[in-house]
Design goal:
The protein has 312 residues and is an alpha/beta fold. The protein contains 14 helices and 13 strands. The strands form three sheets. Strands 6-7-8-3-9-10 form a six-stranded mixed sheet, with helices on both faces. Helix 12 crosses helix 14. It is globular, with a radius of gyration of 21 Å.
């Protein structure tokens, strides 16, 4: 768990983060959102002491982050920035090995970790390990950047606008991959983003900042259905609130026994995407299939709309 108490940062007479309290549960994803200049990146960087707090404390798994040198703290916390930050003249393998080598891992252990992570991120070690970053696509570079941050097996991963430089298609794939890998590794992730759709897709809880102050820290459904202030409501968006609520549930929750002819949907698809698919296909029901391709039920347009209404 990450415990943040009264965390504050001042530059001269300006307070950019103002007495923030947060609890980030172990194995969860928390998104920090807010307008430009709200203090979200500064808050993130105080967790690993890239920025030293003016006041307040941070504990990771019960241990104060000030109990060890900042450089040692950062070696046990993964950190990913926009544009991936890879060393351009080092190979993929050398980039991933950066922190393990600092920690004194053996060559055999490092090689095994590189192979494990490349396979986890869908990159063939025989093809990609010896390539330079410039030889990779933007999406591949970002995956290597995250792999490097996870190389030493940190319990905490901090991400500052990690997908901001990617085009929409690659970005969507990177977001989906991150969520799947996090569920597998159970890493505690704190991600800064200006994209509310990204926050709702990835996060278990969302922290909303404005002028350095924490306005609300809650589950995505609570932000949409019970915003703490007008600022929170404006940031989460009122026009597409119903669709965002549907994006938080999967087809599985609205599924019923039965079978529909024609259209087939995955049980893991969001209700928002399922609604779009039904409307596009011009049908009122679709068969639902599990991960193995077997039919597990059906979902109807009425069931999806009823689920959306239940959130109101």
């Amino acid at each position: 768990m990450i415990e943040i108490d009264g965390l504050t940062k001042r530059y001269g007479g300006t307070t950019v983060v103002d007495a923030v309290d947060l609890r980030v549960p172990t194995g969860s994803i928390t998104a920090i959102v807010g307008t430009s200049g709200s203090g979200k990146s500064t808050l993130l960087r105080m967790i690993n002491r890239l920025v030293e707090p003016s006041a307040g404390t941070v504990r990771i798994d019960g241990r104060l982050t000030t109990e060890e040198p900042a450089h040692a703290l950062r070696r046990r916390i993964g950190y990913v920035i926009q544009g991936n930050g890879l060393f351009p003249h080092r190979t993929v393998a050398e980039n991933i090995a950066t922190v393990p080598r600092m920690l004194g891992w053996s060559d055999v252990r490092i090689a095994a970790r590189i192979e494990q992570l490349l396979l986890l991120f869908g990159l063939d070690p025989q093809i990609h390990a010896q390539r330079l970053p410039a030889e990779l696509s933007g999406g591949q570079q970002q995956r290597v950047g995250v792999a490097r941050a996870l190389a030493a097996g940190p319990s905490v991963l901090l991400m500052d606008e990690p997908f901001g430089a990617l085009d929409p298609i690659i970005r969507a794939k990177a977001q989906t991959d991150l969520r799947a890998i996090q569920q597998q590794l159970k890493t505690t992730i704190v991600i800064v983003t200006h994209d509310m759709d990204e926050a709702f897709l990835l996060a278990d809880r969302i922290a909303v900042l404005d002028n350095g102050r924490l306005l609300q820290y809650d589950k995505p459904t609570r932000l949409l259905t019970a915003p703490a202030s007008a600022q929170v409501s404006a940031l989460t968006g009122t026009a597409d609130r119903a669709l965002r609520l549907l994006s938080l549930d999967t087809v599985m929750v609205a599924m019923a026994p039965g079978h529909a002819d024609g259209l087939q949907l995955s049980a893991s698809m969001s209700l928002r995407d399922a609604l779009s698919a039904l409307i596009w296909a011009g049908v009122r029901a679709a068969t639902v299939c599990g991960a193995d391709g077997e039919v597990v039920g059906q979902v109807t347009l009425e069931a999806i709309l009823a689920r959306g209404a239940a959130h109101q």
